[in-house]
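Assess the record.
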Amino acid sequence: MCARSITTCFRQWRLWIRPFLIALYVILIVILVPLLIVHSLNNKSNKSVQAELIGGGFVLLALPISIWQITQHVVHYTKPYLQKHIIRVLWMVPIYALNAWIGLMFPEQSIYVDSLRECYEAYVIYNFMKYLLNYLNEDHDLEAVLESKPQVYHIFPLCCLTPWEMGREFVHNCKHGILQYTVVRPITTVISMICELNGVYGESDFSPKVAFPYMIAINNFSQFVAMYCLVLFYKANRAELKPMKPIGKFLCIKAVVFFSFFQGVIINILVYCGVISNIFNISDPGKEKIMSSILQVSIVYYCIILEYSNNPFIF
């Protein structure tokens, strides 16, 4: 009898999952916030501890926003072919937030956590592309629709290239141009980890003797190709994508995945040139990594607010 009641309760999980998550979050706040405040008060002179407190606050704001949206999709799972990709994309918000906070607290080990996040970035791009293709192929054959459309030409700075023929060639080139990033990023991440373990990675060092500038160049080129193909794909299917309010979705993907990468590159250049050291009066190279992590937390929180304010994945 007891086993049957438990089974019935689990079958009705849609009725209690949201109140359960709210209660769990309240308990987390009640326990974790006082601990963070006490830890911060005991280390008033330590700037990194103060930054950890602020970063922890951002994480505690990010988690309920993203988890609530994920739960809403799971409870109202009416379009699995679309929502499974939406849920996977939404998971990048807590992953980014926790990654930034962990990197803030343990800057020396952040490269290993960053590597996992970077692999998930590639997975997010894959799911976003699959989401767009499934949406566009829901009622019509995308390739056939594109064949009847006017030719879409390349945009600056590749406007001199021969345009891709509308239809199969256009979809094929856009898809592979976007998805190549899902292959390149994990490969460069693994290479970076191997180089770090052998002491030749040289994070924030643009010397030709270390691997860091080469990895940045490869990732930069791969991201440019993916972003360009994504914009071109949107340009060709703007009318069909209009009902799903694509602007917020494109902004989120670009801001969280692409723009945060370029911000990281800019920060590394500023660290290498000594600009951050002069502004914040930092002489210890280890503390420069802490300052870089602080700025990573700020961009992650900005992207969370951007996603929440536009509600891009709520139907």
Summary: Residues 44 and 50 are 7 Å apart (CA to CA). Residues 284-288, 290-315 have pLDDT under 50 and may be disordered. Residues 80-310 form one domain.
